[in-house]
Design brief:
Largest sheet: 6 strands, parallel
Number of strands: 6
CATH class: Alpha Beta
Oligomer: single chain
Number of domains: 1
Helix content: 25-40%
Order of helices and strands: HEHEEHEHEEH
Number of helices: 5
Shape: globular
Strand content: 15-25%
Radius of gyration: 16 Å
CATH topology: inorganic pyrophosphatase (n-terminal core)
Length: 178
């Protein structure tokens, strides 16, 4: 039991070191056409329990039906319990910042025009996922280090309607969405 606790502590330190290294390197940009076609959503399911609301973006922004990919983080979850959204947790942290979860590997294998970091508190697992995702543009909340997001919105993550309208407004200004 003590050995397992020490292992987890060292994995956390290893992940934090990897995160610091990644933040010091310039982010590689994707070469894609103007506009947003594919959206990735990284959501904290402990704070926001209705991730299906992100599918409203398909209709609001005239995207293809499969254009929104969502993955959620839960501090603790039961692998035998069914979740509508693919989930990862602290248990999935491996050495050197690796996240050992098949849902994560599938999510990271895609390129996104827009990544929505839908979390407002610093969390090692969410931050690791954010730096690993290949995305042209990133949107998130003000409570997180600005290094993770290109566009930072204020407000409470519980108010999805306000987030969606503010995101639409600023993306129109940036000529990403009409």
């Amino acid at each position: 039991m003590i050995l397992k606790g020490l292992t987890e502590k060292f994995k956390q330190k290893s992940g934090a070191k990897y995160l610091r290294q990644q933040l010091q390197q310039p982010r590689a940009g994707l070469e894609r056409s103007q506009g947003i076609q594919v959206v990735g959503v990284l959501v904290d399911l402990d704070r926001f329990d209705d991730p299906e609301r992100f599918y409203e973006l398909i209709e609001a922004f005239s995207l293809r039906p499969n254009a929104v990919k969502i993955i959620g983080y839960k501090r603790f979850y039961d692998k035998n319990s069914p979740y509508a959204t693919p989930v990862f947790s602290d248990k999935d942290l491996g050495w050197h910042g690796q996240i050992e979860n098949s849902y994560v590997l599938e999510f990271l294998s895609r390129d996104y025009d827009l990544l929505i970091n839908y979390f407002a508190e610093e969390n090692l697992m969410m931050q690791l996922m954010s730096v690993k995702v290949k995305a042209q543009m990133r949107i998130g909340f003000a409570g997180i280090d600005p290094a993770y997001n290109d566009l930072i919105l204020g407000g409470d993550p519980a108010d999805f309607g306000l987030f969606k309208s503010e995101m639409k407004k600023y993306l129109a200004v940036l000529k990403q969405w009409a």
